[in-house]
Design goal:
275 residues; mainly alpha; Helix Hairpins; Serum Albumin, Chain A, Domain 1; 13 helices
């Protein structure tokens, strides 16, 4: 560029010439998301022959941001949101059951309810000298919530088995879903160290250990696995460490799309159980 001569400026809508004239990009009013993508890749979009209508920049940037997010979202992020909805559904059901189960005493039913479903079935019978229709509505809503939880669980387990086949075989779909949700994505989980996986879910205890000098935590949510929870006294920390090391391997294999042999998964389980 010659000193003292103004250069052309590339804007999001076109090229501004030194004399102030503007050469607008083609279809600026319709395809500005694609124009942003081209500029991001260092490609100058095609110039239009006539003046274009420039859309509102704020709206253009919002739509471009949404398109970029959609590009980066995968099934693992969808599974994380599904797990969060399922967790919230569990909280709703537990709270609803806490309040609704008290109505079972008003039902003329001599059977002992052993589960949520039995309790809601008894309530929904409406067999009472009080407002039977109210009980039928309350019981039916409880049954509907239980069906919702089952449907969400089935869908999540099917999704996790497809996204994380190796980790699901090692620790089960439920625990694999929780680890994925706490990590935020499969890529982040695959980058976790064994110690990070071992203590995932124990962040509060770890903070108290650092700030107050309490005993350090030995495990987080992986304690829910039977291999850790069922370990002999004094062995839970060692089992948790071994399990976390194997989860490191399976999560990274899941990230690469590599399917580990069932025999290898069984070998991992045997190594974790070794005293």
């Amino acid at each position: 560029m010659t000193p003292g001569i103004a250069a052309e400026e590339i804007k999001w809508f076109g090229i501004v010439r030194p004399d102030g004239t503007i050469s607008y990009f083609k279809d600026t009013g319709q395809d500005y998301v694609e124009i942003f993508n081209s500029l991001r890749r260092g490609i100058i979009p095609e110039i239009a022959g006539e003046e274009q209508k420039i859309p509102d920049l704020r709206s253009a940037l919002i739509n471009f941001g949404k398109s970029r997010l959609r590009e980066e979202l995968g099934e693992d992020r969808f599974a994380v949101k599904l797990f969060q909805v399922l967790s919230s559904t569990d909280e709703i059901i537990n709270l609803y059951y806490e309040k609704a189960s008290g109505f079972s005493i008003f039902v003329q039913n001599e059977n002992n309810e052993s589960s949520m479903k039995d309790t809601f079935n008894a309530i929904s019978s409406g067999d009472t000298r009080f407002d039977g229709e109210a009980l039928r509505v309350i019981g039916a809503e409880g049954l509907r919530l239980l069906k919702l939880r089952k449907d969400l669980t089935d869908r999540l387990n099917e999704l996790i088995l497809r996204i994380m086949p190796n980790t699901s075989k090692l620790i089960g779909g439920g625990l694999a879903s929780e680890l994925l949700s706490r990590a935020g994505s499969l890529q982040r989980l695959a980058l976790f160290s064994a110690s990070a996986i071992q203590l995932t879910g124990a962040e509060r205890s770890l903070f108290q250990h650092i700030s107050r000098g309490t005993d350090p935590p030995k495990h987080g949510v992986i304690y829910k696995h039977s291999l850790v929870a069922g370990a002999p006294d004094g062995k839970t920390g060692r089992r948790a460490r071994r399990l976390a090391c194997k989860i490191c391997i399976t999560a990274r294999a899941d990230m690469r799309g590599t399917l580990l042999a069932d025999e290898l998964i069984q070998k991992y389980i045997a190594e974790i159980q070794r005293e």
